[in-house]
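Q: what sequence does this backbone want?
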């Protein structure tokens, strides 16, 4: 039984890597090349005036654009090269925790059937709203931030062929990392499914999911996103839609929660080099995710009840 479960899980993992790799490889390749063109500089110049509206200087546009187009590492790397006040560093960190790696994470999210406008509205909306609230509420943090790690100068690559090879390497490594995580993960999950362990786990999460307005069969989607993130957890989410009959409503609510709060360990600890308090950062993400999902769940429930779907909620 275990051998069959492993085979089935590995096959599911390979299919998932193929599905997501078709998104991750070209996007990573394109953005890696664009770093060496005027395009990103033009985007940064375009965004700079908007940062002033949320209490940030023009320089803040650099980590915001890089973090959203690339990933948190790129955004944090940019912050480490700037002299910014503590308040601005914290605002940027909160914004990037909600909204980062938009192209890849939005692309894989679409594979689960969640609407693109929902993902972008929640992520970008939370990023901007959090910046406005922190800027209005916090009146301190004017001192220049002292970063926990020394600044690292990024290596510069010149020439068409080296840039293209570097971009191809990054794209291939992106898919490789996905395979290293997703394939064994899917095998383990398949074993847990066949041994009925996931049923026990889902029942344990049921009270929390009920508060959020999400059904029990979406538990693995939530756990995968919380622990390993949207991109790497998308394989589990896709399988949940296909095999566990997770409804469009429950998948959307789970994703609303996860776009606000995912990869909670890595995406929180990664900000330690900035020297900012990471516990408030984590609590902001978690509380926002819970309140937003609960509110949306209640709204969705009321709409369904008005359309004569009471029986669904009586079960």
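A:
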């Amino acid at each position: 039984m275990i051998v069959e479960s492993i085979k089935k899980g590995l096959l599911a993992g390979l299919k998932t890597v193929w599905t997501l790799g078709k998104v991750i490889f070209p996007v990573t390749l394109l953005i890696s090349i664009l770093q060496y063109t005027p395009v990103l500089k033009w985007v940064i110049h375009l965004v700079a005036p908007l940062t002033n509206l949320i209490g940030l200087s023009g320089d803040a546009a650099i980590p915001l654009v890089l973090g959203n187009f690339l990933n948190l590492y790129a955004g944090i790397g940019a912050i480490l090269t700037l002299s910014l006040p503590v308040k601005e560093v914290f605002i940027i960190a909160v914004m990037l925790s909600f909204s980062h790696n938009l192209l890849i994470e939005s692309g894989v999210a679409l594979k689960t059937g969640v609407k693109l406008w929902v993902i972008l509205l929640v992520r970008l909306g939370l990023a901007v709203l959090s910046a406005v609230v922190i800027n209005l509420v916090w009146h301190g943090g004017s001192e220049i931030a002292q970063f926990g790690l020394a600044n690292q100068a990024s290596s510069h690559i010149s020439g068409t062929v080296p840039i293209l090879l570097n971009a191809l390497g990054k794209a291939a490594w992106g898919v490789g990392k996905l395979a290293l995580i997703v394939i064994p993960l899917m095998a383990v999950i398949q074993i847990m499914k066949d041994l009925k362990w996931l049923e026990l786990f889902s029942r344990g999460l049921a009270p929390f999911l009920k508060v959020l307005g999400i059904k029990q069969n979406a538990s693995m989607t939530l756990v995968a996103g919380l622990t390993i993130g949207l991109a790497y957890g998308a394989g589990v989410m896709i399988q949940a839609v296909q095999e566990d009959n997770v409804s469009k409503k429950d998948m959307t609510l789970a994703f609303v929660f996860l776009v606000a709060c995912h990869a909670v360990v890595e995406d929180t600890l990664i900000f330690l080099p900035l020297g900012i308090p990471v516990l408030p950062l984590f609590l902001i993400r978690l509380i926002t995710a819970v309140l937003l999902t609960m509110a949306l769940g209640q709204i969705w429930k009321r709409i369904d009840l008005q359309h004569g779907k009471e029986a669904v909620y009586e079960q």
